[in-house]
Design goal:
The protein is α/β, with parallel strands linked by helices and 199 residues long. The chain has 7 helices and 8 strands. It folds into 2 domains: 3-136, Conserved hypothetical protein from pyrococcus furiosus pfu- 392566-001, ParB domain; 137-182.
């Protein structure tokens, strides 16, 4: 059954009734299925995030529009609800949301799923989704890594969640030009000094 959300007040009432749905992995236990609680939300209640390092060429946007016309809106956008701005913030699906604009399909509602992530998990999720599709802009990774470190995420956690090695994280930290990001880093010698006796 489709749930339509037209107002903030309506969302607050619906939010209290949303029950998480899970499937079970034999290897990892319970995995949540947010798409089981898909909502159809009025476009004016949805806004982009400020950190997504992803862009799409105009011809790909044309293809996305045609795909939605041919196949329907098969993939809801992924969002969180921000209580401060009282809007759904896009984690993944900015270009699918763009299809709702008057210049494209001029939609009243956008299908979305709702995650309960803090800013660190939101940023990590955005990068994970982009990299999994192979459409991530590497040159903006440094800014994402900087923001995650500033949010208190450890380098090891960043490496695990973003699928990159520590050396790459250190390179990106250098790119941002902020020594503060290195204050808790452990260092090793570039090479070992070995005394060689007379031979």
């Amino acid at each position: 059954m489709a749930i339509f959300i037209d107002t903030i007040e309506q969302f607050y009432k619906v939010r209290a009734t949303l029950t998480p749905v899970y499937i079970t992995s034999r290897k990892h236990g319970k995995i949540e299925v947010p798409c089981a609680n898909m909502l159809l939300v009025a476009r004016e209640l949805i806004v982009a995030n400020l950190y997504n390092p992803n862009s799409v060429s105009p011809d790909k946007l044309d293809l996305l529009r045609q795909s939605i016309l041919d196949n329907g809106f098969c993939f809801p956008i992924v969002t969180i609800w921000d209580d401060e701005v009282e809007r759904f913030i896009i984690i993944d699906g900015f270009h699918r949301d763009t299809m709702g604009d008057p210049d494209w399909l001029d939609l009243d509602y956008i299908p979305l799923v709702l995650l309960k992530h803090d800013i660190t998990r939101r940023m990590t999720a955005t990068v994970q989704f982009n990299k999994a599709r192979g459409v991530h802009q590497v040159d903006l990774d440094a800014d994402v890594i900087r923001a995650l470190i500033e949010q208190g995420m450890s380098e090891d956690a960043i490496a695990v969640h973003l699928g990159i090695d520590l050396e790459t994280i250190h390179r990106y930290k250098q790119l941002t030009g902020v020594a503060e990001l290195f204050k808790n880093a452990s260092y090793s010698m570039s090479w070992d000094v070995v005394e060689v006796g007379d031979q």
